[in-house]
Amino acid sequence: MLNAIKDRVHERPSEVGETPATAAGGLTRAGFLRLLGTGLFAGGAGLSATGLFAQTSSDTAPVTDIDKVYDAWQDRFNAGDLDGLIALYAEDVTYINPDGAEWIGKAATKADYAELLALKPRIEIGDRIHVVHQDIGLSTNHWTLELTDPEGKVQTLTGGGIEVLRDFGDAGWQFIIDDASRSAS
User: Fold this and answer.
1) Per the database record, which ranges form the SnoaL-like domain (predicted)?
2) Which of 5, 10, 25, 164 is 20 to 30 A from 32, comparing alpha carbons?
3) Is residue 184 part of a domain?
């Protein structure tokens, strides 16, 4: 089954952002989510539509220090805290997922993350850089994401993001643009 999954992921390499690592047989986050969306993994992983949205919220406190935003994002992501994660986004956020699909608003962003968080991934965000002008921050990072496929094999993906944040005062720093489809080098 894993070979069939890998073959399907690499049918459209330009859409999944194939790199030398993924060309060698790794499964990208985008490919993994595409397969999940088609239902290929749903049966094997025992997921249901209601299970995808059964995330809980443990911490939605605003983050008022830009240097702590990625820590909060990483903690909430790794905890599967969908509501807490989405609380870090502005209502009218522009979110570009690793596939390059653009989503506008919290609801669309939440739906995209719900699929990923259902897989119980772990992320480590490094190489964090923030440049701030008044209430706007430009941030970049590199990340390593681990997912477990239905056969129990751990898939390690790497990438990066370029984000624009705004300081909303008491509501803290929130992402107004989150582009997870590329990495600043």
Assistant:
1) 72-161
2) 164
3) no
